[in-house]
Queue: 3 jobs
Job 1
Amino acid sequence: MFRPLTRLGWELLGLDCQRGIHAFDRALRDPQAAQTNHFQSIMTHADGTAWARSYGLHARSSIHEFRQRVPVQEPSELEPWTDRIRKGESHILTNTEIERLVPTSGTTGPSKLIPMTRASRKEYSTAVKIWLGDCLRHCPAIKNGRAYLATSPALDYQIEPGPVPVGFARDSDYLGGIGRMVLGHILAVPISVAGLREEAWRNTTRESLFRASDLSFVSLWHPSYWEALFSDEELTKLADTWPQLKLISTWADGACQGAARKLLKKFPKAAHASKGLWLTEGAVSVPWKGGCPVALLSGFSEFEDAYGNLFLAHELNQNQNYRPILTNHAGLYRYRLGDLIRVDGSIHQTPSIRWIGRADKVSDLRGEKISDAQVALALQQIIWRELFLLLPVEEADPPHYLCLVCEGSSTPFPVSKMEEALKRNPHYAWAREVKQLGGLALHHVPPDQISEIKRTLDRKSNLHSKSTFIITKDTSADLFRCLSAGVRN
């Protein structure tokens, strides 16, 4: 079905993307100058804040002064500052208004709250428009149909209400005025669906997509996302329902490679568009002309190698691994992210980077990102002090986590309480609600066997992190050999 307003909406959105695209293309030719200018803007927004005063910084502080005075921050070190923001204090991390506090997945403990300001939203919007512009350049035929931009159902956060709203912004907020105006004509699933919960969200999304015979573009985060909505048989049939589907944009690097191949096999006529590395905290890279260069206009980035050496974007070396450290207008300053990237080329003078996985020990079957620290906190909450390991079982249907505890433990392991504790991570809770993940299962292991598994984990621990509780997907194949056949079943 040809929809003139849909085509017009795409054309207007494409024009709106052009200014950011031209600025980004110029920045790629001189990444050092682009990052210096962006850093100076961030310092202007930090001037006079409680954070800036604590480090003796101001609007004219140089990158050298900043890096000399401010240590690299772990995510947990943000919490004292956001606690003050939640209580209604102003000029804490930035001298502009905090629009909302956005929850992360909670990979290093409880869900962290990331401030959002108008300037930080613009940083994210810049990355979104570059990505959309690249998709339109790569496949202009998507203008002939509608799009599906994946959303999650509305989530309830276990956080006391305060003066600053807590929750995610609407997708339209990242597209600016023109984007908000035309999005209703472009989307196959109404924006309002994101406000629905659980089955209402699922049913409305399914019904809208089943009717969207003109669907031309799909944007998912994790490639397994549709498993929450459709059966394998339904997805096969939808390839005929969506004859105009031309482009699917999803993560396809690192642990997502297998799921991405499986998804794209279902829709052989659709091309794949890279997603880049976008996190709740901000954008690290954006897709552009076949690569994923550093998002120079969406934050000030540093990169840490395995030895703790720090580099700026223009100093990165080809075929080397780094951990991104982000500074941006949201009030994140030298914020160490939990991801590992590899330099795989360059666009003009700017390194192109590829996500290769989590730098800390995090298990991510369906976008839930359960970390070792989060498991430790959950074990504290259920008062379990004996040996424990959490094993992802990806080959099950649905995938789930297996709790490994010692045979002969003094008390029964409280599986249901552990489940509730892990649901404090809203993304794990969502994956459970929509049945992307099955419930926790329990397996008893002889004490000497579980001790050997923990020693193996310690030997395999990598950059900045030593795992104690989680067997992640990259090590589970080796560790399965330590377990009895009963663990697999």
Note: Confidence is low (pLDDT under 50) at residues 460-467, 484-489.
Job 2
Amino acid sequence: MNELDRGRMEASKEKKYIDIAEVILITLDTRGNIKLLNKKGYDVLEYEEGELLSKNWFETCIPECNREEVKDVFKNLIRGMAESSEFYENVIVTKNGRKKIIAWHNSLLCDENGKINGTISSGEDVTERKKIEQKLIESEEKFRTIAEETEIGIIIIQDGLLKYSNKAIDAISGYSQERRNEWTERNFIDLIIHEDSDFFTWNKVNDLVKGNIDTGEKLPFRIRTGEGDIKWIELTAKSIKYLGKEAVMFTILDISDKKKNRTGTKKNK
């Protein structure tokens, strides 16, 4: 086998490796012209294989409104300012006019003398993930708007930490937002449950905090507030998704007046 055939065989093998990758692989020269693009790249960009070779990446695949910004990132990378450019997300436009968001990992290509002669990048299509993240943000904003208007206390515990509590919790618990920000799930249990509460209550609340029970059952018990007062509350717990992860949401209702009224009615009888 001569050197030419050996070279062709090696090139064919390298192309197979590149084409089985589940990420976009692309190399650009110092002017931003496409020197190599794998099959995944062509699929995402909706072009036929080979159709983009030697085309200018920025002029062909970047929306005009984002073009200068993305060019600046590329120029910084070519100048050796890799730290600010090695990871980057930007919008690309496909042959059919669809816009997609790609998360890139960028690196430099150099010749045998160490001179920079281009870039190599691997890219992941994160369009759907970004849409989901945006929906989660929007739904969280709606949730917070509603939660801050209600007199029912709301607490969300996730990964053993208190991730959210609304204004109503101030009045119910007697603990300020600043103090609650330091709570863990253990603090939540130890601080609010009255020390004379029975074992059943301690056990039940502990299970609810850990997400082991999700019945919607209303659990009444006494708490000791941050000011040292004793109140009756009614607690319910539900497993939810909060910012895309499992969490437990508690709703807390102050039923102290209801308890007093019942006691007063019994005494009158």
Note: Strands lie at 24-28, 34-37, 87-93, 99-110, 116-125, 153-158, 161-165, 219-224, 230-242, 245-254.
Job 3
Amino acid sequence: MGEILLLYPPVAKPSEPPAGIAKLAGALRCHGVDCVTVDLNLEGLDYILRQPAAVNDTWSRRAFRQVDKNRAGLSNPVTYQNFDRYKRAVADLNRVLAVAGREYDLELSLANYSDKRRSPLRSQDLLRAVAAPEKNIYYPFFSQRLTELIESRKPSCIGFSLNYLSQALPTFAMIGFCRQRFPELAIIVGGGLVTSWVSRPGWRDPFCGLIDHLSAGPGAESLLTLLGRKPENLNSAPDYSDFSPLQYLAPGRILPYAASSGCYWNRCSFCPEKAEGNRYQQIKPQVVIEELDKLLTENHYDLIHFLDNALSPALLRQLAASALKTNWYGFTRIEKILLDPDFCLALRRSGCVMLKLGLESGNREVLTAMAKGIVLDEVSQVLFNLKAAGIATYVYLLFGTPAESLAKARQTLEFTAAHHREITFLNLAIFNLPLYSAESRELKVRNFYAGDLSLYGDFIHPQGWQRQDVRRFLEQEFKRNPEIAAIIKRDPPIFTSNHAPFLLDI
């Protein structure tokens, strides 16, 4: 059996190595399958940043002139000691990408790839990318890099990890190139976006004959089965060894780690995880600690990024009782165990520097309608406990849900402002309706992101609280509140929570 080539395509935030193919690599190598993992997202970024361009304005000239300085700066802790210097480095790199993208009618950034002519939500546009890979901005890079990899490695198959819409068009352009240049090569595509597509009711594969296998879910079991191997240890630790020499855009080495898949709560209304039927699977908490100890012993990491939809109470207890060799952060529900100040202090001693919290609303009726299982009085105590323990909070709010009105949104404003001392960062989002959630059947749905691969839609709001009304409220009221504006001002541009832990001492 030949080697397996696992690729992570552009565009995604380039602050840490890709967890999905590292997890696959760990499983494959544990079963004796040779593989190599390649971060084409990071390599593609460096390719674009080094392309010359004719620019006339002062900002663009400065941005192109200082690419190397800014690229190195975002990997240097000193840059993060001055927030203005940090923001300028991010903005200048983003400017270079934006200028490069214009020639191809793209809105290109450190975290996004948006084509004004083609949509990743339409299968016909993805197939057009397949038919003309040479029209993709990354073509000079990936045509050479893929040829080099395939001719030197001679893999038996090639796998693409497709997680975000921003990766879809570049991924399919690469598939098109591989089909033209190496037609005998088997192609597998997996990842979060593919899982969402395949989980749609009545899914019919528009890429049949082009892609040999679309892999839904975690992927290791189906890939091993395809390779003729009996899956025996699917909880093997991720293998990041191929990424160790790479310099990501972060001031320290980040270890992405998933202790579970799915969500243990699995009750929230309109939840995509629930709509897709993703089962909750958790690695035993003690095994998580053992794996992390091993990974941290083998390589130096400055920060662990837990990727779980929500860290379970059992894992939080295990973490609080452990002494990891480095700091960590992750997403958790506002659970009762966080009402204990001593427990929060134990979490901080274990290395917890930040928790991401899905509050969503400051109105009791909205939270009840969303089945969040959150009590606002308890939220106040949890926020206070975490602040006292020295743990930063990244609070997520969601506006425009079917149960919300302007009056209820204003209660969220009031709650947020009242807790401005305890909230370190904010993530503000406008509700998108998952088209295939059970709750969507009770609403009048209309097209939002038009395309046969769309996962979300617009709806007629039961209380007349339409998207334009929500946007107006956020811009004219919520963000203009002085206490809230100060929180929003702290948010790291583009990288948001991925860089937030590195800015906590500012």
Note: The longest helix spans residues 83-102.
